[in-house]
UniProtKB/TrEMBL annotation:
Its main location: other. It catalyses: a nucleoside 2',3'-cyclic phosphate + H2O = a nucleoside 3'-phosphate + H(+); a ribonucleoside 3'-phosphate + H2O = a ribonucleoside + phosphate. Residues 1-32 form the signal peptide. Keywords: Hydrolase, Metal-binding, Multifunctional enzyme, Nucleotide-binding, Signal. Its EC number is 3.1.3.5. It is found in: Cell envelope. One of its GO terms (biological process) is nucleotide catabolic process. One of its GO terms (molecular function) is 3'-nucleotidase activity. SUPFAM superfamilies: 5'-nucleotidase (syn. UDP-sugar hydrolase), C-terminal domain, Metallo-dependent phosphatases. One of its GO terms (cellular component) is outer membrane-bounded periplasmic space. This is 5'-Nucleotidase. It comes from Micromonospora lupini str. Lupac 08. Belongs to the 5'-nucleotidase family. Pfam families: 5_nucleotid_C, Metallophos.
Amino acid sequence: MTSGSGPSRRQVLVAAAAAATAPLIAAAPAQAAGRPRPRTWDLTLLGTSDTHGNVYNWDYYRDAEYDDSKHNDIGVAKLATLINQIRAERRGRATLVLDAGDTIQGTPLATYYAKQEPITATGEKHPMARAMNVIDYDAVTLGNHEFNYGLPLLDLWIRQLGFPALAANAINAKTGKPAFLPYVIKKVSLGFAAPTLRVGILGLTNPGVAIWDRGNVEGKLRFDDMVATAAKWVPIMRARGADLVLISAHGGDSGTSSYGPELPNENPVALIAQQVPGIDAILFGHAHNEVVERFVTNERTGAQVLLSEPSKWGQRLTRMDFTLAREHGRWTITTKAATMLNTNTVVEDPKVLAAVRAQHQKTIAYVNQVVAQATVEMSAVESRYKDTPILDFINHVQAETVTKALAGTSYADLPVLSQASPFSRTAVFPSGDVKIRDVAGLYVYDNTLEAVVLSGAEVRAYLEYSAKYFRTLAPGAPVDTEQINDSTVPDYNYDVIAGLDYDIDISKPVGQRITRLVLPGTDTPVADDAQFVVAVNNYRRSGGGNFPGIVKTQVYNEQQEIRQLLIDWAQAKGTIDPSDFFQPNWRLVREGVPVF
């Protein structure tokens, strides 16, 4: 089923109602000690989310086994081992496996088969299709990052899967019909003498796609409110025989959004549970949090809806267990609970490793290609709170690219500024050989370069908004660099601007922190009506992070990937020397006194 043309209503309903896999065998009826009680059976749901292209327990940026300060492991191969262990433990009893999205983006492995050797050109099976097919999922929900590489690649990946891909609120803009399968109803055998259990699974993707991947979906897809979509489909699923309703949703449970109110809520899972009756449990993702077990009371029925989110990258596996009884010809849930399993407790599944090994090794060879020599080591560890050469490298390449492209146009005489974010706290260009993986580790997203025109007043407002990243620290108060930023603002939503000189006074309230904004190398304040071209990534220009003034018509947009521009610049130059691009232009202060 493709995104380009939505299925007919009859196709959707027939596919959803008829979808079923080989029967799953459930537990024998339980008996109470001493006296009989109603027969019960059990169902287990295993859930993954936000695997982001991780198959092996491998860090492509370090070219080493993955490890972090908490000794987490990652990857679908680790998840597979846990899933197989639980299936074996349950000895064939009813076990469903779902994923809540963000699958085909996030590692050099995923990028390689979207950009370097795209599956749309080669016809090769995507590594995440290979890995997930070994596990034999029951369904996957589309996450927002599934749309990063365009609809043709997404459609091909879906066709390569051996199970359904769901997204009820992704609507074909021309027909008004679902662009993907909204839901499935799976017939689950609960064993001898037990009527078949019909499990409805509804998939909901994130409305933020309309902003974050506007270039790929505008005019083709619209993304409806997740709460309203659940309210539409859950009664339909119940009417068509679903005894138990599960939702696999790519949205967090905070009730907040990273963008403005013009789009439906980004993280509405708790609201769905609260407002939509008829839901038994929700597996969710997107926020990369570990939510082991959360119950939300439905305000209309009083029912307790079970929620769980299994962290990110394959670090955790959600397990939900349901006890079911048959009463008056209907299935009821007598108990439900969730636990979380850690993938650092198991080895990788050899079948998953084998399925992806050749692609994994090809990716390693690619990212270890040397692109240039660095004259000194450059680190991003301080880039959040100090002007650093490694972030200026990004800004220099972006500004240079836009300046050259605008030569001879009506914008050629405007100063070019550039925006960059400290995506990684661990990125390093070593002294000597700089490899593709070093550049990829600095710029970890598949963003493209765009440019817009901003006034001086808009630049100031933009910087003020960015400066909310920092906590307020009075003059003389101790400074802990690990606690200097507001933990609710992610690093990727803090921007520095190159091309103007400015101070951020973190002793002042949010909105009053840009105390000095001047033309470079001068004391001349930037006039409100001054005009600047600003080089910016497509995520930010499309509204990601809800920065003010930046969502406007581009004066430059050649669909060039920023990471590739960085690689190309380094290869052409042969040497990465800070003296070619490092221009210290901003600092943190308190009452005019530098913090560092």
